[in-house]
Amino acid sequence: MTQTSLAIVLVEPEIPGNTGNIARTCAAIGASLHLVHPLGFSISERHVRRAGLDYWNLLDLIEHKSYEAFESECAGQQKYYLSTHGTTTYTETDLTDDGLMLIFGKETAGLGPQILSRHRDRVITIPMRPEARSLNLSNAVAIVAYECMRQRSFF
């Protein structure tokens, strides 16, 4: 089966190690990585590069100046928004669309209510115990990205 394209989008990520780990996951599965500014770090920081050290040459990295710029530049793409506020789980969602974008918010606040309310029918979640606040961002990306790959019969 031919792999269809997948993009992982990080809106205002704050922790360089998480972004580096996510970059490594993206490189391993052939997904592009979109970073939406402002970032909480410089992508040239050694912590980001160290996490994906020998994978940066395999990474398709796209940067957007703001969330509004991202929306404009990626209009028409199929998108799912990951949030603890979602009611549909990622496993109940068809993640096979070509050009699919999985959008994740920043570590301390997730995606803002203004984004979630505009895309309410496209918000999905990873189930967890009610007393757990959230998962680590790089773990959440890996969980959903690999479900996407599984649904697409991997490569």
The separation of the N and C termini measures 6 Å
Note the quaternary state here. single chain
Low-confidence stretches are none
Sheet with the most strands, sense and barrel status: 7 strands, parallel
Work out the count of structural domains.
1
Molecular structure report:
The protein is of the alpha/beta class and 155 residues long. 31% of the residues lie in helices and 19% in strands. It has a single domain, classed as Alpha/beta knot, CATH 3.40.1280.10. The protein has five helices and seven strands, in the order βαβαβαβββαβα. A seven-stranded parallel beta sheet has the order 3-2-1-6-4-7-5. The longest helix has 15 residues, at 137-151. It is globular and about 35 Å long. The N and C termini lie close together (6 Å).
